[in-house]
């Protein structure tokens, strides 16, 4: 079968001068309209609902709320710092040629990932029941109750638990770096730890940061479970207030607003960090050979 | 001053196994200071393994290797050999520089940072001096204008020249090249070989694993032919490449040239 000969187009250079018009994005307009409609309905419901917005405004910057906010932020920072430090240390231990180190790391990850966080918090908080005093024999000792209050117990509980998860994230980040990088570092005389610090970890960051950023965001919210051991973070303080004045939804809105603000700021920080560690990866993207 | 006669590399009955496979089988080799030795041989014959044992990227199973007179990996303590620590092995590796087939430039560092990294972090040189020397090295390999480019922004040939500069920045006494041009497009091979030729002329001791027989003929003081983990034949390039004594060498050269 022979195809009918195709008509050659005119190839008229005049088309170079024709104006160009973008196409109509019907779907976008339609979806925007639907979203706006839904939004309007939600706003209407909240405006007409039984919410005293004045109370929300009034308590948004109340000292107890701001104090709780500060505690939440400080706890997030401290617990994440502890978690990331432990995560890096245990990831390196998990990949050590030393079998004892590997065993310790495996035990740590197994234990703290395997038990509920709230249980771990309760254990830290009630440590005084088992060990009335803690310290290093002969050097110093202190009453456990004085050392491990709500702040310390929360920090230990959240930070050590976080470390077990971060260790796995860091380990996968380290594994993502081409082995050739490690060998090249060795050939210029670097030791194992220097290689990790200067060559492997900076490149692993690209893989580590997105999940850790995710975990920071979780941590902001996770601090709220420390209210069970009387750590006065923002949600607990909001609850204390609404037990007294019965403005439940208003105070929950206040807390929600602050959580969203903190998380938004952190997300901006994450974007900046990701940019920083994308160095050398941008552009043409690995032309090899 | 007494002229030293210590060989730059001395390998004595070196055996290296991977499982049951002997990647190196009773290999002995002496390389004098200033020599340029090209190692040729078919794929899997143990050429890379030999280089990697010389700078201790691999541990040998038996035999001994001395690099510039230092026994690799061990310290003699009376009648025993005591294994060296990670740190001591890292220090021994400073004697040699290595250039890889796949370049292995540090991907998160610019060309200049790649070169400066070792001198500053390992040798604790002042950064200012290290940068000045790195710039000189970049000029020497013809890449002065690429100092701030990341590896991903360089061609293969340019990456390999930076990798050579990075190794030279550590002022090694011996340079190891593992098929430095095998991953390159043909038109980029020449620029890398030119840098290596200059280096050979400057008196550097070099061990070069290569399939570039032309380069070997021109630059090598000796050619070593390996097959199945053994040294089969060695001698001046004209002899090994021009009039090989062994059948296996003849077959290999015929295969490469065809
Ligand atoms: N890490 C390893 N694990 C197991 N076997 C290995 C390893 N490295 C090398 N070998 C084996 O040892 C032998 C020698 O390998 P080597 O890489 O030294 O060969 P080569 O001469 O460099 O080959 P090529 O020209 O392909 O690079 C091969 O059979 C190879 O499969
Ligand atoms: Mg090889």
Q: How would you briefly describe this protein structure?
A:
The complex is a heterodimer of chains A (289) and B (258). With 289 residues, chain A is mostly helical.
Describe the structure.
The complex is a heterodimer of chains A (289) and B (258). Chain A has 289 residues and is an all-alpha fold. Chain A has helices at residues 26-48, 53-60, 63-94, 99-114, 117-125, 127-130, 144-147, 150-175, 179-187, 192-222, 234-245, 248-277; strands at residues 133-136, 140-143. Chain A has a two-stranded antiparallel sheet. In chain A, β1 (133-136) and β2 (140-143) form a beta hairpin. In chain A, α4 (99-114) crosses α8 (150-175). Chain A is flat, with a radius of gyration of 28 Å. Chain A starts with 25 loop residues before the first helix and ends in a 12-residue tail after the last helix. In chain A, 29% of the residues are buried. Chain B is α/β, with parallel strands linked by helices and 258 residues long. Chain B has a six-stranded mixed sheet, with helices on both faces. Chain B has a four-stranded antiparallel sheet with strand order 2-1-4-5, covered by helices on one side. In chain B, strands 6-7 form a two-stranded antiparallel sheet. In chain B, β9 (174-178), α6 and β10 form a beta-alpha-beta unit. In chain B, α5 runs parallel beside α6. Chain B starts with 8 loop residues before the first strand and ends with a helix. The model of chain B has no long low-confidence stretch (mean pLDDT 94). Adenosine-5'-triphosphate binds next to β2 and α1 of chain B. Residues 18, 21, 23, 41, 43-49 of chain B line the site of adenosine-5'-triphosphate (ATP).
């Amino acid at each position: 079968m022979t195809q009918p000969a195709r008509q050659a187009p005119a190839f008229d250079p005049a088309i170079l001068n024709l104006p160009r018009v973008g196409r109509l994005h019907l779907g976008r307009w339609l979806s925007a309209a639907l979203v706006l409609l839904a939004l309007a309905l939600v706003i209407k419901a909240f405006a007409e609902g039984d919410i005293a917005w004045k109370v929300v405004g009034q308590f948004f910057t109340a000292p107890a709320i701001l104090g709780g906010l500060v505690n939440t932020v400080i706890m997030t920072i401290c617990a994440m710092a502890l978690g990331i430090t432990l995560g890096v240390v245990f990831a390196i231990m998990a990949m050590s040629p030393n079998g004892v180190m590997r065993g310790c790391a495996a035990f740590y990850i197994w234990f703290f990932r395997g038990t509920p966080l709230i249980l771990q918090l309760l254990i830290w908080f009630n440590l005084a029941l088992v060990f009335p005093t803690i310290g290093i024999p002969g050097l110093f000792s202190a009453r456990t109750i004085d050392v491990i209050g709500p702040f310390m117990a929360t920090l230990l509980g959240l930070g050590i638990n976080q470390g077990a998860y971060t260790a796995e994230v860091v380990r996968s980040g380290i594994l993502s770096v081409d082995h050739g990088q490690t060998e090249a570092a060795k050939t210029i005389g670097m030791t194992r730890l220097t290689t990790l610090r200067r060559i492997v970890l900076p490149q692993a960051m690209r893989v580590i940061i997105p999940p850790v950023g995710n975990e920071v965001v979780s941590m902001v919210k996770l601090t709220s479970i420390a209210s069970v051991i009387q750590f006065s973070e923002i949600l607990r303080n909001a609850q204390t207030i609404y037990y007294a004045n019965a403005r439940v939804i208003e105070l929950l809105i206040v807390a929600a607003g602050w959580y969203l603000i903190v998380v938004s700021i952190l997300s901006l920080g994450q974007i900046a960090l990701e940019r920083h560690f994308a160095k050398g990866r941008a552009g043409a993207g690995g032309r090899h050979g | 001053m007494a002229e030293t006669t210590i060989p730059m590399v001395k390998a004595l009955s070196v055996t290296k196994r991977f499982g049951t496979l002997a990647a190196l089988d009773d290999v002995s080799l002496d390389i004098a200071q200033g020599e340029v030795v090209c190692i040729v041989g078919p794929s899997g014959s143990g050429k890379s393994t030999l280089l990697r044992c010389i700078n201790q990227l691999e541990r040998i199973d038996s035999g001994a290797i001395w690099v510039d007179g230092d026994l690799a990996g061990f310290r003699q303590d009376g009648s025993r050999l005591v294994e060296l620590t990670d740190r001591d092995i890292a220090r021994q590796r400073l004697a040699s520089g290595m250039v890889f087939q796949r370049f292995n430039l540090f991907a998160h560092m610019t060309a200049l940072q790649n070169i400066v990294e070792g001198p500053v972090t390992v040798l604790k040189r002042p950064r200012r001096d290290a940068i000045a020397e790195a710039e000189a090295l970049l000029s020497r390999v013809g890449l002065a204008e690429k100092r701030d480019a990341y590896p991903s922004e360089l061609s293969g040939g340019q990456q390999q020249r930076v990798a050579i500069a990075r190794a030279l920045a550590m002022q090694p006494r011996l340079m190891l090249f593992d098929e430095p041009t095998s991953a390159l497009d043909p038109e980029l091979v020449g620029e890398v070989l030119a840098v290596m030729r200059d280096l050979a002329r400057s008196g550097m001791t070099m061990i070069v694993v290569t399939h570039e027989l032309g380069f070997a003929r021109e630059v090598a003081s000796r050619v070593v032919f390996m097959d199945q983990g053994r040294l089969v034949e060695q001698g001046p390039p004209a002899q090994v490449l021009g009039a090989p004594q062994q059948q296996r060498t003849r077959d290999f050269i015929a295969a490469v040239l065809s």
